[in-house]
Amino acid sequence: MTASRPTTRPRKEPSSAKPGRKAAARRSGAGHRTDLLEAMLRIRRFEERCVELYSAARIRGFVHLYIGEEAVAVGVTGALEPGDAVVSTYREHGHALARGLTPESVMAEMHGKATGCSGGRGGSMHLFDASRRFYGGSAIVAGGLPLAAGLALADLMRGLPGVTCCFFGDGAFAEGEFHETANLAALWNLPLLLVCENNLYAMGTALAREHAQTDLAMRAASYGMPAWAVDGMDVEAVEQAARRAVGGIRAGAGPHFLELRTYRFRAHSMYDPDRYRDKAEVERWKSRDPIARLTERMRDGGELDDEALARTEQRLAEEIDHAVTAAERAPEEPVGDLLRHVTSAPYGEVSRP
Amino acid sequence: MSTGTRARGTTYREAMREALREALRSDERVFLMGEDVGRYGGCFGVSLGLLEEFGPDRVRDTPLSESAFVGAGIGAALAGMRPVVEIMTVNFSLLALDQILNNAATLLHMSGGQLPVPLVIRMTTGAGRQLAAQHSHSLESFYAHIPGIRVLAPATLEDARHVLAPALADPDPVVIFEHGSLYNAAGELDPAAGPVELDRAAVRRPGTDVSLITYGGSLPKALAAADELAADGVDAEVVDLRSLRPLDGATIAASVARTHRAVVVDEAWRTGSLAAEVSARIAEESFYELDAPVERVCSAEVPIPYARQLEEAALPQTADIVAAAHRAVD
Amino acid sequence: MAEFTMPSLGADMDEGTLVEWLVAPGDPVRRGDPVAVVETAKSTIEVECFESGAMGRRLVEPGTTVPVGTPLALIEPAAEPREEPGEAGRPREEPRVPSASRRAAPAPAAGAGAGPAPAPAAGPAPPRAPAASGAPEHGAAEAGPLVRHLAERSGVDLGSVHGTGPAGRVTRADIERASAGAAPRSPRVRATPLARRLAAELGVGLSEVTGSGRDAAVRARDVSGAAARRSAAHPPQRPATAAARASRPPGEEAPGMRQAIARLMTRANRDIPHYYLSTTVDMTAATDWLHDHNRRAPLPERLLPAALLLRAAAVAAREVPELNGFWADDRFTPGEGVHLGVAVSLRGGGLVAPVLHRADTLDPHALMAALKDLVTRARTGRLRGSEVSGATITVTNLGDQGVETVFGVIHPPQVALVGFGRVVDRPWAVGGLLGVRPVVTVTLSADHRATDGAVGARYLSAVDRLLQKPEKL
């Protein structure tokens, strides 16, 4: 009863790949740009509120803000289907929201409430949603990469069409786990999309101060996989590149690597004085704000007016207000349940602290 | 191809292989992956012949990337497979410790119960073969320290044969330690033996005067010590912990309540060892049963040396166990 | 009017120092603008405000350290709220979104309300919390665990030590000074936990047992051996005899104590016409209750049979007040309250009888604790004067030394002495059937000048009755 399964997906020409219906429907045009803009604005406004709540000590832990990088999460996840898997980092509010986790469940998680997407046990750095195949934030740099390879391997072995998308940063590129995973994925032709968010700083260490060769896409290509560098401040460019990569993966061409050149407008975390970056550099990147860029493009094309934008902002503000109110009112996970979810079934002495 | 259903001569290695074969046959979600598990047949020969039977997809050779393939096992488990990942030895497992500790053991909890990780990791452990400092570790206590994983140390033929099925049925990560000195252990497999009760220690020899509490590769030494003690008129009970996490405190306490004396035998270094944990449990739960201080027989606190006489001196030996038991009893 | 407060930038930040204002009063500020520089334990950080408007009154001057959540300044609403929908997405130019629910939500100030500035904000910023805010107020007895341990080991009463440390804390040196003269406690007998437990259960004194274990530790079999020998060998003894234990070299006992006992007992035997009564009490209920209690109770709360016996003796003395008091000037004076003298034999020989004051009001736990304390201190020579005087009736319990029946000599001017023997298993008829039961022999030595036998009999039957309902003791 030995099952003989294909080790690799049959290779197809990318042109024959069938993009998802939804993706096709919103592939271009004003309606789609409106969606992209709203998705980016949701992340931005959500995180701005996080800053305020953090300063007031309503939310705690390490909080890493994505502000400035929204185009990456929105563009890449726009190219994914519901059956695909996403593995994220500790800077993952954007990925989670773009993947469809509700602001309510993420905000509740940051408040440590029972209604949070991880039941209050994860916090900002560990957002999960199994129903959306969102395999969460990992606070160990590069720790999610091997796991993503395994998700891709399982889909491959089970003959499922899913693509696993793994986000990580330029810091993770220096870790052994990236290189082990890239090699393994290429060797086994895994349906894995490696998305490197190159924001130029590994916490406080600039790219050139930690990489002998700073052309990350070129280095990734040496593992024998297609690899491109993309302007991570342009959501449409990101989405286009991601579609191309996902199409290739679905067609059986194995793992693809995207280096998305982006920038975080805020410090590494809340408690970071940001001494390692020149203020002029920050201002320069802010002038390339992906939200402003798309807004202007849409205005120029007559796809957006003040009134529509105000309506969107109003709706998002209400959505986030609601998320905060709901999170504040949500029940806390009882301390009596402290040891829940350590193992699937309580057994033996594990309940002993 | 053997069936393993009637009493017959076998070895620990063959029993483990039979368990893998059974698992691969009975559940198509199961696959074996690790360094040299396929064409080589496993560094210790455990998976010999399985590639030929099940093919390269399910008996999967990996690059020398412990972190990547253990992490891939975790990911595959999340996505519906039942991987058995072999790490060649515990010494190399340190390169995957991040994945085991930070992903396998934590995902269920930090996802609020959404993501169980039904993964089995097997690895060889222990010293005694003159392999010197980097290939002689007993790091079971590192793993037993971690909530969220189950740690097993099969020490008998029956346990080797019957530990894998319940481990694979567990929805959470299980780490199985196979002591290198046990692979050649031969004997008749008890045909009546059923699946290992994962939470339970086993009393391998009942006795009334002193409890020798041990696991894994030290079990044969403890049983030999019990024989010698019997000749001296000391009736030793031998407890095989078998499950290192969770520890079966009830069996330990019951044994100490019978004998009032305990000797804990552990091939790991004494400081911070499982022997330390077992001793602490006895102090917590069986203090008023003790009629002598708990004795520990552990490895000397030294990187395990190569030279034969030095290695022997560093490791717990039967004579050390006998001496410790006499100290407790006399 | 909104408050700009000291932000929390991490769970480990409790306070921050305002270093510099980046905007002047009256300057316009927008949500997200950095308005001040704050120094924390970790770094110096520009902090932003979360309201748009004009910088209002400053509440805190640079250089001041304040707790997180403290208002630093007020932000006044902008003169003309601007609608800037067109600027969405442009960095640093946030559209002002009017939102009812936002306004309704309380201002996110940690530990402070949203309303008008709370009291602390109105005045100068609260000063940095003094490091010693948790300093003790209860003075001399304040001492750390090490000091407590040292005090206990060297027999020093912490309450009597003058602390020379900060805030009157007792220091190690204080203990060493105080203990310089104090007699060291006799060393604890080395015994295994099981042996200790058995000794308590069997009523065997560990110090009487020769240890066969490592470093002469007493082991379980030594205890059971001693218990077996004892039950075979020991004849009844009178307290005075017990006090002069033949096994002790006479030199170990303080000669003064021997002479005092001699004088007192001679007087008692000469002046007091004793009568003696004895009864045997079924201890099944009492031992069952103790066993059950001890199984559930944590170690410090476990009880010995003596606690029940003493308690019964004290309550019975209250019930039969004719036996609780003094014979002086040819007449009996009842005691005010039951103050139970407890004969304690000393290791070096000799006897003292410290007093459990108002013993009839102490429950078995309190009695047990008081007894332990008294016995320990009696044996280390640290009883206070008040603790060896004023007994209204005395109990001698030689059960733990293997004695079955005690006929004691009354301690003048008291008029009665109660003796308890060992709890032993004996054939016992209950309801016409013979069974083996734990029993104890209770004796009463009473002064015939003060009472007659009938009174003594009432006392003994009260003791018996009380011991049948241990749960009510």
Automatic annotation (TrEMBL), chain A:
The residue ranges of the Dehydrogenase E1 component domain are 39-334
Is Cell inner membrane given among the entry's keywords? no
What's the catalysed reaction? N(6)-[(R)-lipoyl]-L-lysyl-[protein] + pyruvate + H(+) = N(6)-[(R)-S(8)-acetyldihydrolipoyl]-L-lysyl-[protein] + CO2
EC?
Answer: 1.2.4.1
| InterPro entries (alphabetical) | DH_E1, PDH_E1_Alpha_Subunit, Pyrv_DH_E1_asu_subgrp-y, THDP-binding
- Oligomer status and interactors: Heterodimer of an alpha and a beta chain.
Put simply, this protein is called Pyruvate dehydrogenase E1 component subunit alpha
The protein's organism comes out as: Streptomyces toyocaensis
TrEMBL record, chain B:
Q: Which cofactor does it need?
A: thiamine diphosphate
Q: Name one Pfam family in it.
A: Transket_pyr
**What Gene3D superfamilies does the record tag this protein with?**
3.40.50.920, 3.40.50.970
UniProt cross-references to InterPro entries, sorted A to Z: THDP-binding, Transketo_C/PFOR_II, Transketolase-like_Pyr-bd, Transketolase_C
Q: What is this protein called?
A: Pyruvate dehydrogenase
Say if the entry is tagged with keyword Repeat: no
Which molecular function terms from Gene Ontology are attached? magnesium ion binding; oxidoreductase activity
What species is this protein from? Streptomyces toyocaensis
Where do the Transketolase-like pyrimidine-binding domain residues begin and end? 10-185
Q: Which domain of life is it from?
A: Bacteria
Q: Which SUPFAM superfamilies does the entry mention?
A: Thiamin diphosphate-binding fold (THDP-binding), TK C-terminal domain-like
Record key words, sorted: Oxidoreductase, Pyruvate, Thiamine pyrophosphate
UniProtKB/TrEMBL annotation, chain C:
The first-level EC class reads transferase
By its UniProt entry, which SUPFAM superfamilies does this protein fall under? CoA-dependent acyltransferases, Peripheral subunit-binding domain of 2-oxo acid dehydrogenase complex, Single hybrid motif
Q: Any idea which UniProt keywords this protein has? A: Acyltransferase, Lipoyl, Transferase
In residue numbers, the region (Disordered) covers 68-141, 157-189, 220-255
What residue stretches are annotated with the Lipoyl-binding domain? 1-76
Which spans does this entry mark as compositional bias, Low complexity?
98-111, 130-141, 178-189, 233-249
- One GO CC term on file: cytoplasm
Enzyme Commission designation: 2.3.1.-
Q: Peripheral subunit-binding (PSBD) domain location, by residue?
A: 142-179, 190-227
UniProt-recorded Gene Ontology molecular function terms? acetyltransferase activity; lipoic acid binding
User: Which co-factors does it depend on?
Assistant: (R)-lipoate
Write out the biased-composition intervals (Pro residues): 117-129
Note whether Transferase occurs among the keywords: yes
Name the residue ranges with Basic and acidic residues bias: 79-96
Q: Does the keyword Acyltransferase apply?
A: yes
The family note in this entry says: Belongs to the 2-oxoacid dehydrogenase family.
What PANTHER family does the record point to? DIHYDROLIPOAMIDE ACETYLTRANSFERASE COMPONENT OF PYRUVATE DEHYDROGENASE COMPLEX (PTHR43178), LIPOAMIDE ACYLTRANSFERASE COMPONENT OF BRANCHED-CHAIN ALPHA-KETO ACID DEHYDROGENASE COMPLEX, MITOCHONDRIAL (PTHR43178:SF5)
Q: What is the protein name given in its UniProt record? A: Dihydrolipoamide acetyltransferase component of pyruvate dehydrogenase complex
Q: Which organism is it from?
A: Streptomyces toyocaensis
